[in-house]
Specification:
The complex is a heterodimer of chains A (299) and B (415). With 299 residues, chain A is of the alpha/beta class. Chain A is 30% helix and 17% strand. In chain A, helix 3 links the parallel strand 3 and strand 4. Chain B is of the alpha+beta class. The chains are: A alpha/beta (299), B alpha+beta (415).
């Protein structure tokens, strides 16, 4: 038996939030992308409910354009945890004619995920969706609540949010509404990496430096892949890179890196002069890109 | 890493955004792409300085109107601490946002424009920090460059503020005055050359030295049960764990405890954090405890030490900060959420309204509108287990939920 439990304030806050979700909602789900934030969420959920299993399923909204390394990783983790994994595909929403594939230079399936997500929420009647969004990522997210109420259409009413006082979380909703829950709202990118390092968590290999075929556009490093539109004059080259965020291939740019271990990654982030979202192509669409997507029901 | 949450309140003009921007800039917390975005937007608006509010006002409506509508959270860190700034708008119509921001903070910065001195808004900021029992308040007298870095002017403002402090009943509150120029960077992170007469610490030096463990008000141990863990696996067949957060003090294995409301006595058998067992659980830890006896415990119950009982009552008086567009009236009913426990509450009387500028109270009030603060008496359908807010910052607070809209309509601090 260890003597005294010393605490990490952010970890304890997140565990508290997970327990509130399990207690206040009937059908919660943890949205799992295979990225570092959702991997962190999974560990926090394990801690919140030990020695019981995580009392809700994981769900992945698969754009079909994910990095194969992420999918492999996802399947392995779920098997270890012994929890249910639900996968819903953007391709199905396209085939059903609910959304239209974008075309051209900046085409991405990132926006299309929203429809697939909202359909899945309705299909399973989820009343709480837990996600790994953090307030420090982006300025619209900085305004987000920990329990964020969405209406029947999945929309975020940013001007009319419930105040959150002390650590009391009000999860009362009407039928048809659902709540998006963000247990690591107050974590920064560095907090997440430090946690991954301390907890010795396994993460997909694309977070570490590797050789990859890339091309340059708008000063960002794009992955050369069949899923990413490329002009003929855009030259493909091989380069040592890694990814700081793992989204859809078409909206996630790489960064130059030689960091091959977690501690090297942590050191790199500590010294970085570019923010994490600086490599998100989807945020560069406009100053209010994230706020608009959130209003429509995006995570 | 230690985490310190700080609330700031103020309007656009008193240099609050500049101060936050200066903290971020001088601690090298602004990344190149964010700085570039600020430069771009500032230029577009025709400013000849960097408008840091563009980094914090995250909503389209806020940027269009140049105002802060909602609480923004700003993050930066030094080698010793992670800081979270809850930046709230300072006008009277945003009192509810100030209360919200202050409720999760352990320290507060009140900004004063050295040219204008102590004004009505200063009263309100101090009042709210007092109401919320914020232990460390830093009064930053800003724009000292515009009053020729005058020591005399600084002392004048200090004396004026001291008159407010004299009206306060919160004796343990630490109040620290610092003369700064956020625009020029004097006494924010770097010491000022122009104010050689000031011998105190810079703003950041002061924040760095605050003890985050000590800053939470101590009190009696309160363990509200959030969730009961029953794995029903072979290895943990009979395991009944009570998951919750420890407030006020520490819980130890072997402590004699009593479960409320059943008043069953037992002894703490084990303390779990994830897969490890501990002898002691610190304040604010989210742990799981087991008891020696097989007692009936469910969500909303509270485990306390046998000789540290809270009040168990169905009636009480509280100071209410009203946050809803629909008025609070005598006889109206709400869901009262006290920690993780929910009961039904009815307003018995509105005793009086409290002016946030320390000008006194107003009696004969029949309803409360948004941003009002008042003393209200309640009748509950079931007793709750509470302490007065002044004695216990967490166990003395609650929220009121409108049963029709499910909105959080108000916050209460039990007297």
């Amino acid at each position: 038996m260890t003597e005294k439990l010393h605490i990490n304030a952010l970890e304890n806050e997140a565990i508290y939030i997970f327990r509130e979700v399990a207690a206040q909602f009937e059908k919660p789900v943890l949205l799992f992308s295979g990225g570092k934030d959702s991997i962190t969420l999974v560990r926090l959920a394990q801690k919140a409910f030990f020695p019981a299993k995580i009392p809700f399923p994981l769900m992945h909204i698969d754009t079909g354009h994910n990095f194969p390394e992420t999918i492999e990783f996802r399947d392995r983790l779920v098997e270890e945890l012994g929890v249910e994994l639900i996968v819903r595909n953007v391709q199905d929403s396209i085939d059903q004619g609910k959304v239209k594939e974008e075309s051209g230079r900046y085409s991405s399936r990132n926006m299309l995920q929203t429809t697939t997500l909202l359909d899945a929420i309705e299909e399973f009647k989820f009343d709480a969706c837990i996600g790994g969004a953090r307030r420090d990522e982006e300025k619209a997210r900085a305004k987000e609540r920990i329990f964020s109420v969405r209406d029947d259409f999945g929309q975020w009413d940013e001007k009319n949010q419930r105040p959150e006082l002390f650590d009391m979380l009000n999860g009362q909703i009407e039928l048809g509404q659902n709540v998006r829950v963000f247990p690591i709202s107050n974590w920064t990118e560095l907090d997440v990496w430090t946690y991954i390092e301390n907890e010795n968590l396994e993460i997909p290999s694309i977070y570490f430096a590797h050789k990859r075929n890339i091309f340059m556009r708008d000063g960002l490093i794009w992955s050369a892949s069949e899923h990413v539109y490329k002009d003929e004059e855009e030259q493909v080259e091989e380069r040592m890179v890694r990814f700081r965020t793992v989204g859809d291939m078409s909206c996630t740019a790489a960064v130059d890196s030689y960091a091959t271990t977690i501690s090297q990654v942590v050191a790199e982030i500590r010294d970085s002069s570019i923010s994490e979202r600086g490599a998100r192509i989807d945020d560069k669409r406009s100053e209010a890109a994230m706020e608009k997507r959130k209003q429509q029901g995006y995570f | 890493m230690e985490v310190l949450k700080i609330a700031t309140a103020g309007s656009v003009d008193d240099g609050k955004s500049t101060l936050i921007g200066r903290l971020l800039y001088d601690t090298k917390s602004l990344t190149d792409d964010k700085l570039e975005a600020i430069e771009r937007s500032s230029k577009q608006k025709g400013y000849d300085y960097l408008d840091f509010s563009l980094a914090t006002d995250g909503l389209v409506a806020e940027r269009e109107q140049g105002i802060t509508i909602d609480v923004a959270h700003i993050y930066f860190s030094t080698k010793t601490k992670s800081y979270i700034i809850a930046d709230t708008p300072g006008h009277v119509e945003y009192t509810r946002n100030m209360v919200t921001g202050a409720s999760t903070s352990q320290a507060a910065i009140i900004l004063i424009d050295a040219r204008h001195g102590v004004i009505e808004q200063t009263f309100r900021h101090f009042f709210i920090n007092n109401l919320l029992r914020i232990k460390d308040v830093i009064v930053a007298v800003n724009k000292m460059d515009l009053v020729d870095f005058s020591e005399e002017r600084y002392n004048e403002i200090k004396a004026d503020f001291q008159k407010l402090v004299d009206k306060s009943d919160y004796e343990d509150q630490n109040i620290t005055f610092i003369p700064v120029s956020a625009l020029k960077g004097d006494n924010v992170v770097e010491k000022s050359n122009s104010m050689y007469w000031f011998k105190g610490q810079t703003l950041l030096e002061h924040l760095e030295k605050l003890d985050t463990k000590d800053i939470y008000n101590r009190g009696r141990v309160r363990f509200p049960v959030q969730y009961v863990i029953r794995p029903k696996t072979e290895e943990y067949h009979d395991f009944r764990g009570y998951a919750g957060k420890v407030y006020g003090g520490e819980i130890k294995v072997g402590d004699e405890v009593i479960v409320l409301p059943s008043e069953t006595k037992s002894i703490v058998k084990e303390i779990y954090f994830y897969d490890k067992k501990f002898e002691t659980a610190a304040r604010r830890s989210s742990c799981t405890i087991t008891l020696e006896d097989n007692v009936n415990v469910s969500r909303g119950d509270m485990i306390v030490k046998v000789d540290e009982l809270p009040k168990v009552q169905k009636q009480f008086m509280a100071t209410i900060s009203w946050m809803d567009a629909k008025n609070l009236t005598v006889g109206s009913k709400y869901v009262l959420q006290h920690g993780v426990n929910k009961v039904l509450a009815k307003v018995s009387t509105i005793n009086h309204k409290i002016e946030t500028d320390f000008s006194g109270i107003k009696s004969d009030i029949s309803s409360l509108g948004m941003n009002d603060i008042a003393s209200v008496s309640f009748q509950l359908n079931k007793p709750i287990f509470f302490d007065s807010f002044k004695e216990h910052r967490t166990n003395g607070a609650f929220i009121l939920i409108d049963p029709q809209t499910n909105n959080t309509a108000g916050a209460g601090f039990i007297e």
